[in-house]
Amino acid sequence: MTYGKRLEKVFCNNECSQTAQRKQNWYNFNVCRILKRHPEGLTAEEIARLMDEFDFHQNSHRVSSRVRRLVSSGVLIREKQGVSPTTYRLANPEGFGQEWLSHV
Q1: CA-to-CA distance for 29 and 20, rounded, in angstroms?
Q2: Are residues 3 and 12 in contact, defined by beta-carbon separation less than 8 angstroms?
Q3: Residue 59 to residue 6: CA distance in whole angstroms
Q4: Residues 6 or more apart from 64 whose CB is under 8 A from it?
Q5: What digits encode the pLDDT tens for the residues 34-72?
Q6: How many Cβ atoms from other residues are within 10 Å of residue 1's Cβ?
Q7: In this structure, is residue 4 part of a structural domain?
Q8: Chain segment 5-43, per-residue pLDDT in tens
Q9: Could you give the 3-state DSSP secondary structure of residue 40?
Q10: Domains: count for the chain
């Protein structure tokens, strides 16, 4: 099946796949992939728990620290509502791979 025909498209093409899997990009890519599955947004603690699916052993403090770069680059939106925990969601939930990494 081609890159454009898969149901859960995360890569635009082979080059995009290789770029995402580079060590410096893999963490950010997987945060975005998790948030794509949860368009309503997740807390840092929820992201940390789901990162275990990709063998990243994280806690909420480490996730919060690492996603700041994605927030400042406009890939993620940080939402704080009253006393509720801060949630993060994709700025463009329809985006994928290369779009997520092009801003970081």
Answers
A1: 6
A2: yes
A3: 32
A4: 44, 86
A5: 999 999 999 999 999 999 877 888 888 999 988 998 999
A6: 6
A7: no
A8: 545 556 666 766 666 566 677 888 888 889 999 999 999
A9: coil
A10: 1
* pLDDT value of position 53: 78
Residue type, 95: G
Instruction: Name the token pair of 33.
Output: 């992939």
pTM (global) more than 0.85? no
The pLDDT of residue 1: 39
Q: Quote the domain boundaries for residue 67.
A: 11-102
Question: What separation in angstroms does the CA of 75 have from each of 2, 5, 13, 98?
Answer: 26, 24, 20, 11
Q: Is 1 domain-assigned?
A: no
Give domain status of residue 2, yes or no: no
Q: Can you give the CATH number for the domain in which 75 is found?
A: 1.10.10.10
The answer to the question of residue 5 being in a domain is: no
SS3 53: helix
User: Cβ neighbours of residue 100 under 8 Å, at least 6 residues apart?
Assistant: 28, 29, 32, 70, 75, 90
